[in-house]
Amino acid sequence: MATVSFQFPPFPEHVRTARLVVGAAARREGVAEELVDELRLAVGEACTCAVLRHQSAGLTNADITVEVEQTEAGFAVSVRDEVTTGADSSSAALPTNGTRQDNESTTDVDIDALDFDEDLAIALIRGLAPVSDIEDSVTGRIISMTWPLSNRVN
Amino acid sequence: MQISISTRQSNDHFVVVVSGEVDVFTSEELDAALSSAIEEGNHNLVVDLSGVEFLDSTGLGVLVKALKRVREHDGSLAVVATEDRITKVFRITGLDSAIGLHDSVESAVKA
Q: What are the pLDDT digits (tens) for A28-64?
């Protein structure tokens, strides 16, 4: 599978389309059916983060880029925004893990400390994607996620 | 995709019934419905998500915001969710420790 990429304007109405497109690509490339719902949710969260970051920064004329490709590690998805805050992506309110452990949090949430939109989105990405990485750089943030392939279709 | 929201009273609880997909595009509608209910003095809320097909972090955020507001009035907020794809987002984020999840409105009202 060649790398497939698409861009969309940073507006909420496009997030559903983005997650459905990536979900269809994942299904076509052989991601197990029981993982596709989780994949769509995680991709939607990454896209939502990007949209909200663009809107907060007033960057509504710069597109968000989504790339999907089949790698040795599996079905890889990256969502890249153009917001250069360099902010720390971790949160004190929610537990996060770089690699998914058991799909559930065992730590109580401090509701009052929760910056709910981004904290919850990142918690879901961490909890749903078997491998995930969030990288802030001078060109923006890239959220990378990978799922295993179980029944590759040629 | 739109969401559909209806409301009703059940004993001393105000029930908000939601169906459709709750995401960054539609969650404002849920926020408006819950905010309106709270402003009208309904501080014991049950949010019925059993007809919701998709729920993301913005939907969770709306529920957290409503929970904070009803707690200011010594109220409560419970959620009805029966599908694993919905309850899972509460479990992953740990919000099931703060928001009671129930399998029916009747169970939520009695809790």
A: 999 999 999 999 999 999 999 999 999 999 999 999 9
Q: Is A58 exposed, middle or buried (0-12, 13-18, 19+ CB in 10 A)?
A: exposed
Mutant choice from B24, B52, B65, B71 vs A, greatest count of A C-beta within 10 A: B24
Given an 8 Å threshold on Cβ–Cβ distance, is B91 in contact with A44?
A: no
Rounded-to-integer distance, Cα A141 and Cα A82, Å: 7
Domains of chain B (ranges plus CATH)? 3-110 (3.30.750.24)
pTM across the whole model: 0.86
Of B24, B65, B67, the CB nearest to A15: B24
* ipTM associated with this complex: 0.90
Give the 3-state secondary structure of residue A19: helix
Amino acid at A34: E
Reported as a single tens digit per residue, the pLDDT across A112-142 is 655 556 889 999 999 999 999 999 988 999 9
Looking at the domain assignment, is residue A152 inside a domain? Answer: no
In this complex, do B58 and A117 lie within 8 Å of one another by their Cβ atoms? yes
Q: Domain range holding A70?
A: 4-147
